[in-house]
Known about the structure:
Radius of gyration: 32 Å
Number of strands: 36
Helix content: 25-40%
Amino acid sequence: MRNFPEIDAKWQNIWHEGKYFYSEINSNKKKYYVLEMFPYPSGKIHVGHLRNYSIGDVIARFYRANNYNVLYPMGWDAFGLPAENAAIQNKIHPLDWTLSNIQNMREQIKSVGISYDWRKELTTCLPEYYKHEQSFFIKLLKKNLAYQKESVVNWDPVDNTVLANEQVIDGRGWRSGALVEKKNLKQWFLKITNYAEELLDGIKQLDGWPESVKTMQENWIGKSFGANVHFKIKNSDQEIIIYTTCPDTLYGASFIAICYDHNIISQIEKTDEINDFISKCRHMSTSAVDIEKAEKYGVKTNLVVKHPFDPSIELPVYIANFVLREYGTGAIFGCPAHDQRDHEFATKYHLPIKQVVEPKNEKIDVVKEPYTKRAGKIINSEFLDGLEVEEAKLASIKKLEEIKFGKACTNFKLKDWGVSRQRYWGCPIPIIYCNDCGTVPVKEQDLPVELPYDIDFTGSGNPLDKHPTWKNTNCPLCSKPSTRETDTFDTFFESSWYFARFCNNNYKTMVDKNAADYWLPVDQYIGGIEHAILHLLYARFFTKAMNDEGILGTSSLKHKTELYENNIDFAKKDSNIREPFKNLLTQGMVLHATFKDSEGNFIYPSDVVKAGKGLAHKDSGLKVTEGKIEKMSKSKKNIIDLDSIIKRTGADTVRMFVLSDSPPEKELDWSESGIDGCSKFLTKLFVTAEKIKFGKFTVDQDKKLLSFTHITIKMVTNDIRNFHFNKAIARIRELYNMLSEELFKKSTSSTLTFAFNTIIKLFNPFAPHITEEIWSYLGNKKLLVENSWPSYDESLAKSKEVTIAVQVNGKLRGTVTLEAGSSKEEVENLAKKNSEINKYLDGVLIKKLIVIPDKIINFVI
């Protein structure tokens, strides 16, 4: 048995000493920039991290072998509340805690052999990084893209900080679990709404992004066309303005609903019932998803409004829990017959439900269930009767504008980005408050504004605000005693531009324009689907704003000319960089079974042992029950100690497993048997290497093996380009099995050596340490990391087609012909497209799918 950990260390040292992963601008080569979303330094990398980095490493090694100039950096998203909480709990400074974690995680990542250029490393909590974002903020302030206003915020009374809507889960803080309060605070905002149209339009050009992510961004930006409608308050000169995308249904209105903090609240007579309701609303979740799921309830006010089309129609005004100030104008008109939440509300409070849209060829009862489709003709609506919905919409807007009770309006759900956070461990906002001069930015030469080290963590309030001296300074304009802003930036600020800093992480200004012009955009970005909206949206916004500020896309003409002359790909691209990430891969989560002892406590998988026919805790002896497979989490203890498993099996075993078990975008079930299987295969490679090294081979060729080797090169190359890593590994193993059969037959063809060398080369991105060791063992002087990717002969790489029998409930219903080795999904899709077969499947539930590769597919219905 080879000592895999020793092999890991040996080759990691050789790669480091040889500087094999260093990257510099080279206009004679095509560039490729691969990047994973950088980690928060929590202390240890976990299997999810490893899967993420292994995906990126395969891509980086593959493109290097294909003669690309590859930039592959690593850094640390190092600000954030966990460090501050750790400081409070463990009486350790956040900086010390963070840097210690970084050192530990860096060593862990290096032990896995990820081919980063560590010279590019950056840490966002260090002043040499965050001073540039302070400078950028001041530029945005001068361009009116940053501003301050008082706003209602989600306030976590335990963490004592503002939370974004997405950080409020079921009305509670995502970290503390405390009941969130609504609070008025002066906050700093960035005008991301100025870029709403471009952010939306730009999604169309993101061909390399998953459709689900693009849809999520489109929905978040939420462009819609409708009208602002004015409802006059009875016996008052005031009005309530409502934005609606359905002015065609105005005649179906039966009530008005406003948010609990609407401006008109001051005009309402406050009863105990109203005061209690408002108090409850202050603690409710602001998540759109939570609001949709929650029961709709409200309280009636003394206000009544008049219908804009017919003043004789009067509508009661309610305060409702499903209306928020952030959406539209903080008020809606309720049309119960044609909106689900309005219907729930009207049913609860016995309000009229009036149908105003009549569908074609469909019977409906709007009292029982609303008709929400935007199709049909308008009824019960005076001048709109008989018009199709879209025609009525335009006619309604025209009428509203004629009578001056409304106006056409394009609206966006996207709101400006509130970047203020009331915490210590973040980038200080470079603002000074002077009694005479007002709000003044710090001078460029005085940056960075650094965090004080001598801080007192009491666990209550903002430590910067309580520091005895730090906030005291002099005004940059008049030199009089003044105070600093004690809020710090939202940590999404740091992750919104780090990809540009990686191009030259030691440059004197925020971004090296020449380097960014060469490297950007990122060719392949990899990260979790949980960042589909905020991080990716903010990064896109920053890229556009940085471009407009001349920070990106303005490299020297001489530099551009050199690149155009030597790099065809670069010459075709628009150097006016407006999008940061060309392609995006969202990897799936890693799952593991959960375990509980007989007392109901979660226990670690490593503490579970077999006991007779069951399971037990290895120390306490308590009976253990295996639960469902879930995402790995510390709370449920279904996590794997990565250090111990790497020490036991070596890095390549774990890398191979996380890449071979399922496609990268799908969830991965952790399996000890899978780990053991990968370890055994790697061991077999060494055994085969000995046979190849000491075997006596003739110049004769095994035509079947030769052809299959070229087919494998072609297929694996395509698989890696398309991120089908599990399929690539399966194909390599299939070639290995064929080679092993020939060795078992004691074949002496020289093709065996060619096939085995090909296996080692193709497998190198997945298992770099062991393949380098075998390559060296076979007597090769040039390292695999220096070798080019194997090429194939097209005439030998023509893959064979196979005819697959298609069964439905075990009975043959037809056949399909396609390329050998096609995936289960490819076979299934082709079978469903066959008209003879589809007639048995159309409209029925497929309970199970049984596939014998290249032979049979059976639909069980």
